[in-house]
Amino acid sequence: MGIRRAAEFASLAGAMLMVSAGTAWAAATEATALPEDAVVGGYVPMQPTEGKGMPTPGAIGFQTQYSPIGEYGQWMHNWVLLPIIAAISLLVLFLLIWVMGRYRAKANPNPSRTSHNTVIEVIWTLLPVLVLLGIAVPSMRLLANQYETAPEGAFTVKVTGYQWYWGYTYPDYGGFEVISNMLPEDEALAAGEPTQLAVDKRMVVPAGVPIRIQTIGADVIHSFAIPSLWFKLDAVPGRLNEKVIFIKEPGVYYGQCMELCGARHAFMPIAVEALPMAEFEQWVLEQPGGTLGAETETELEVPTQQPESAIPGAAGAPRPDSALEEDVDAAEPATTEA
Ligand SMILES: [Cu+2]
After folding, report:
1. What are the two backbone dihedrals, phi and then psi, of residue 204, each rounded to the nearest 5 degrees?
2. Signal peptide location in the record (predicted)?
3. CA–CA separation, 282 and 267 (whole Å)
4. Which of 137, 194, 204, 207 is spaced 20 to 30 A from 268 at the CA atom?
């Protein structure tokens, strides 16, 4: 297979993944019946709490965090980085002022000719090394925790960035998609929600369980970000990104697209509503195509995808056929004869 064909194949496979996923899920949900005791019609959008999960006027720090990773990150910023930065700035400022006063030219007609001092040199090398090591330990832990994969069986929400709104797909609950648009200012105010952050349909999820968020861009690169949940993940066309989100308590948490994605980039906010599991399931049942405990047989007929960078010899590249091998040999510059 030629390189160009492989690339075409890869982008085609991406498009087919989205199309066939929709039809497969639709087919799977038709076969599933609602549980007999399911009550439909009980979901009422939660009223946001003032100052929770949203920016507040005049604030300069992080928003209060509602996920364990967020609490750790905030602790690291507030109690590790800020004190160290402040202490170093004050120390340097003190040294500068002291040198300017104590060693000014007027007070020292005969300047000292000292060129080095071993003790001081050892101290000013070792001390910064120890400070950096002290920062590195919690920093690496924070970094590693952010890359932890979702536990097996975690339920998935697929977030699609569109120009300029969001789509939330629930493959484990029937595969329906919720399309979320920003509310106009008057409607947001009437609903008691912050303007430019309120949406018509929220991403509703259960609180207290790990959730696998997958992001993809339908057109250009977007970024799915919710500051109070310590979550930001790019939504890139043709590529599925994945990250875990864990929301400690029910609430409404607002975010925005954080990748400049075009004319209405500023008008595609995110509203996540975390509910207790029972209320979340209630909400699922009210969605067209929403099912509980659906045995989603998502046997997606997606052909094995070739990496787009499938040049011969690259990791994951298909075994080159003889024609390609000849091409590569011919293309190599003859350096030995020169
Ligand atoms: Cu965007």
Report:
1. -95, 130
2. 1-26
3. 29
4. 207
pLDDT tens per residue, range 40-73: 567 888 999 998 999 999 999 999 999 999 999 9
Beta bridge partners of 253: 272
Measure the CA–CA gap between 173 and 35, rounded to whole angstroms.
13
pTM metric for this prediction: 0.71
Structural contact between residues 71 and 235, judged by C-beta atoms closer than 8 angstroms:
no
Both tokens of 74, joined, read 């905030």
Residue appearing with tokens 């100052």 = 51
Q: Supply 218's token pair.
A: 């339908």
Give the distance (Å) from ligand 1 centre to CA of residue 117: 56
Tens digits of per-residue pLDDT, 215-226? 999 999 999 999
Query: Could you tell me which of 69, 20, 31, 30 has the C-alpha nearest to residue 246?
Result: 69
Nearest-angstrom CA–CA distance, 280 and 211: 13
Q: Sign of dihedral through CA atoms 106, 111, 117, 119?
A: negative
Ordered by where they begin, the domains of the chain are 24-40+154-286 (2.60.40.420), 68-108+116-146 (no CATH)
